[in-house]
Design a protein that fits this description.
It is a single chain. The protein is of the alpha+beta class. Helix content is 27%, strand content 30%. The protein has five helices and ten strands; from the N terminus they run ββββααβββαβαββα. Helix 1 packs across helix 2. The model has no long low-confidence stretch (mean pLDDT 91).
Length: 196
């Protein structure tokens, strides 16, 4: 599925965590997915991703585990064909939020990370989260998207609110205090006006 926004078109494909995988980076040469993702998650702007001190092998191990997990998936988001987003989808009954809230049928958990850039585009991150939500709601089984951002991440709280998320409660996770937030399909459509 693709989502066209004011800043371009987004598509998503599964992340290949194997060292031999290749993708085209904006730098020109082919780069394994995992090397690209490592450069993203260890960047200073990715502080809330909590992988700043991870080695390439650490990141590879993490995403190989996700690839093998029955209830967790990772994707590379392409902006006009170029890698620009890391997105994770998970079943909150089994991953991240297991036992921390009353999960409902059709709940899908999500994380996203925009690739760092030296040439930011106004409205890009808002377009990314809109495309991520379109991708998740493209599955008719998805009824609500559930997120658990760090309470200190004010930028993502504003983005979440812009696409229809409501904070349900503050929860304590082992690695952070988080705002459990949910967004139904109807809340998302109302927030974005049905337009892409």
């Amino acid at each position: 599925m693709s989502t066209t926004t004011a800043v371009g078109t987004f598509t998503f494909r599964p992340l290949d965590p194997s060292p031999g995988s290749r993708l085209r980076s904006s730098g020109g040469g082919p780069v394994p997915d995992i090397e690209l993702v490592h450069s993203w998650v260890t960047h200073p702007k990715a502080a809330f991703w909590m992988m700043r001190d991870h080695t390439l092998q650490d990141v590879e191990r993490e995403y190989l585990a996700i690839a093998a997990h029955e209830h967790h998936d990772a994707f590379i988001g392409l902006h006009d064909g170029e890698p620009a987003v890391l997105m994770e989808r998970y079943d909150p009954r089994h991953v991240e939020l297991a036992g921390l809230y009353d999960a409902r049928p059709g709940d899908v958990g999500m994380h996203f990370l925009v690739a760092p850039t030296d040439t930011p585009v106004h409205g890009f991150t808002r377009a990314v989260i809109t495309a991520v939500m379109e991708e998740l709601f493209a599955d008719p089984a998805t009824r609500r998207v559930v997120v658990e951002p760090d309470v200190r991440n004010t930028a993502v709280h504003a983005l979440n609110e812009a696409v229809g998320f409501e904070i349900v409660e503050k929860i304590a996770k082992p690695e952070k205090d988080a705002y459990l937030s949910v967004c139904t399909r109807e809340q998302f459509r109302a927030a974005v006006g049905g337009a892409r």
